[in-house]
Design brief:
Radius of gyration of chain A: 19 Å
Structural class of chain A: mainly alpha
Strand content of chain B: 15-25%
Shape of chain A: globular
Oligomer: heterodimer
Mean pLDDT of chain B: 91
Number of domains of chain B: 2
Order of helices and strands of chain A: HHHHEEHHHHHHH
Helix content of chain A: over 70%
Number of helices of chain B: 12
Strand content of chain A: under 5%
Distance between the termini of chain B: 92 Å
Shape of chain B: elongated
Largest sheet of chain B: 7 strands, mixed
Number of helices of chain A: 11
Number of strands of chain A: 2
Structural class of chain B: alpha/beta
Strand order of the largest sheet of chain A: 1-2
Order of helices and strands of chain B: HEHEHEHEEHEHEHEHEHEHHHEEEE
Mean pLDDT of chain A: 90
Low-confidence stretches of chain B: none
CATH superfamily of the largest domain in chain B: Response regulator
CATH class of the largest domain in chain B: Alpha Beta
CATH topology of the largest domain in chain B: Rossmann fold
Number of strands of chain B: 14
Helix content of chain B: 40-55%
Largest interface: A-B, 37 and 37 residues
Chain lengths: 292, 368
């Protein structure tokens, strides 16, 4: 029973990681920017939710829409203010990476100045729990699973069936060819940032509602997303989701035989094993080019 | 003759002016103390409220009453960030630039690396709420709280008297806290109890559900949850409630009084039995009037630590750090806002924790 409960906990953690990891991966695959400021986008979505719920007293469903829109807008804003000027100067990928770390750090400091470093809570008390015999599931577990089940197929359909989705995939496959064929790359970048950030918005809405909002809450999530992308296979979108679920499961199932203090050892041990023995990740071997 | 007298008078007047000016400038030179703590970062607001503000509040009170030895107290605050190197850099700056005679610090991973620097520069380290036993091995340190190993036996005794046969532990990865945990486990097992689970979380963690799932499987009578900061304590209590451990009692430390627990709400701390020190209601009211919020145990300890330093400067008649340090170490009884301390030859106070319980959201004395 313990193992089953840990498996469910792991899948729930994995679902939350997957939303941010797929958002991160879609941006990386489409733009080749290692977008560490995705963590700041995540946090911005959390504060937007807090403002909508606690200050504007909006119903929670409306507040979540505000949070999603804010996260998407914030992601686009970072592209416009940070990455686009760097691209215009033909900056290297390393410069874009440094720019993204700068944006993350700056945003965390600004959030702390505006909202203080205190945790801001959206709700009071424990979450509602559903018991199935010896197994307990929180409402957040159920909602996270529901979002993943609904959102990922929609994303897949968007990327494979729509004009813009196909354009994004083409850009990821061959950016130079996209430019030659007259695709408005800058506009497409905005769309990519909006979609990736929107996914982070889903994750932060759940986490903020459960655990509150803090200025630096995006950094650990960002870090896990990066690991998930590497484990899943850089360049392959479903790989990021698979990597995220694998990490969630590893973190929780390791508790079956090990103490909680070994969780990081297990996660980063797995990362090292993948880097050494399977550098392309779980699914990276399936690619000859990157795909969204 | 008249010219000679006039010149002599001028010389005497000039000398007197010089002496007067020197004395005056010395009298006006403030007594300089520093605060080197992590005021930024994820727990910055908590540190400011419970660690920095009480020292500033005490300095404000003493300055309003005319200062110490006719001199005002100047408090300089430096952010250490939450790492040892940052803590050492902040202290070095306070010593070299601000010329402090004493520094207020907090948290084991930050204070222990600061000790050699403080010793070398003869600066008194005042770590009001730090519980790690090694602190007072330094001949330049002082604290105002019982050490970590004193809380465990008090909790174990209470658990035993309540008939708890098995217990699990959920604690933060922190040296001082692990000392508390070990002392609890040893005392509990000595009394015939059994520890059936022991899990940890990191200071920056937000999720402990996996650990709690494992602890739940051990079906304990009691859980001892212990953390160093209110935010993480609040999340632990919330997730204990969600994990449905079905324990009969929760035991903890004074962090359950933190306002973050009230902010999370939902009665997550109701019935928790915990170790703390009693805060003098008159001080609590005065502090609230001045600062706008209730002081917790750490705030009261830091206020006491600041006032002890000021009393020692008065008693020593100087702010010379060696003489002030010696005065503290031989202070004898000191009546603080969290109880009666006694210093006999070191910076280690003689004081024992008491037990309280949360009833109806209030912190009341625990009566078995």
């Amino acid at each position: 029973m313990l193992l089953l409960q840990l498996f469910i906990d792991g899948m729930a953690s994995g679902a939350l990681y997957a939303l941010t990891a797929v958002g991160f991966a879609i941006i990386y695959n489409g733009t080749r920017i290692l977008h560490m400021a995705h963590g700041a986008v995540f946090t911005a979505g959390g504060y937007a939710l807090y403002i909508a719920v606690k200050l504007l007293n909006l119903p929670i469903a409306v507040a979540v829409v505000v949070a999603l829109a804010s996260a998407a807008a914030f992601g686009v804003l970072i592209d416009l203010l940070v990455y686009r000027p760097l691209r215009a100067r033909k900056s290297s990928e390393a410069a874009l990476f440094i720019g993204s770390i700068g944006a993350l750090t700056l945003c965390q400091a600004v959030f702390a100045l505006i909202f203080t470093t205190d945790t801001l809570y959206l709700r009071q008390g424990p979450l509602p729990i559903y018991d199935f015999g010896e197994i307990s599931i929180t409402i957040m577990h159920i909602i996270a699973a529901g979002i993943v089940i609904v959102v990922f197929p929609i994303l897949h359909l968007f990327l494979t069936l729509t004009k813009y989705g196909r354009a994004i995939r083409a850009l990821a496959d061959n950016p130079k060819l996209s430019v030659v064929r007259g695709v408005n790359v800058e506009r497409l970048y905005m769309l990519i940032f909006a979609i990736g950030s929107l996914l982070a918005g889903f994750a932060v809405s759940l986490i903020a509602y459960d655990l509150g909002v803090r200025p630096e809450m995006g950094f650990p999530v960002m870090f896990v997303s990066l690991v998930a992308v590497i484990v899943g296979g850089v360049g392959y979108l479903p790989g990021a989701a698979a990597g995220a679920f694998l990490l969630g499961l590893l973190q929780n199932l390791s508790l079956w035989q090990l103490s909680g203090r070994w969780q990081d050892v297990v996660v980063f041990g797995a990362l090292l094993i993948f880097l050494i023995f399977r550098p392309a990740g779980l699914f990276g071997h399936m690619l000859s080019t990157r795909r969204v | 003759m008249q010219t000679m007298n006039s010149n002599r008078l001028r010389i005497i007047f000039a000398a007197a002016s010089l002496v007067f000016t020197t004395v005056l400038s010395q009298a006006q030179e403030p007594i300089k103390i520093g605060v080197a703590m992590p005021t930024g970062g994820q727990n910055g607001e908590y540190v400011k409220r419970s660690f920095v503000a009480p020292t500033e509040f005490a300095a404000r009170e003493i300055n309003a009453a005319g200062g110490i030895l006719g001199r005002q107290v100047k408090v300089t605050v430096e952010d250490t960030r939450f790492d040892g190197a940052g803590a050492v850099a902040a202290l070095t700056k306070l010593i070299n630039v601000d010329k402090i005679m004493a520094v207020f610090t907090a948290f084991t991973p930050l204070t222990l690396p600061q000790l050699p620097v403080a010793e070398e520069n003869k600066v008194i380290v005042v770590a009001g709420a730090m519980e790690h036993p090694d602190l007072t091995k330094s001949r330049w340190a002082v604290r105002m709280t019982p050490t970590a190993e004193k809380a465990g036996p008090v909790i174990a005794d209470a658990a035993n008297k309540l008939g708890m046969k098995t217990a699990v532990i959920l604690s933060e990865e922190n040296e001082a806290i692990r000392i508390s945990v070990r002392s609890f486990a040893a005392a509990f097992e000595k009394l015939g109890g059994k520890i059936v689970g022991d899990e940890t979380f990191k200071t920056q963690d937000t999720e402990m559900r996996g650990q709690l799932t494992k602890l739940r499987a051990a079906r304990p009578d009691a859980i001892y949850v212990i953390a160093s900061q209110g935010r993480i304590m609040g999340l632990a209590l919330k997730q204990i409630s969600e994990a449905q451990l079905r324990q009969k009692h929760i035991f903890s430390n004074h962090l359950v009084e933190d306002r973050e627990i009230k902010a999370i709400g939902g009665g997550i701390s109701e019935g928790v039995i915990y170790t703390t020190l009693n805060i003098d209601p008159a001080f609590a009211a005065r502090f609230k009037a001045g600062m706008g919020y209730d002081p917790d145990a750490n705030a009261a300890k830091n206020y006491d630590a600041t006032m002890l330093l000021f009393e020692a400067i008065k008693r020593a008649g100087t702010d010379d750090s060696t003489k002030v340090r010696d005065t503290i170490y031989s202070f004898g009884p000191y009546k603080g806002t969290v109880g009666d301390f006694k210093f006999e030859g070191s910076g280690e106070p003689i004081i024992a924790p008491i037990l309280k319980v949360i009833k109806g959201g209030e912190f009341v004395d625990y009566k078995p």
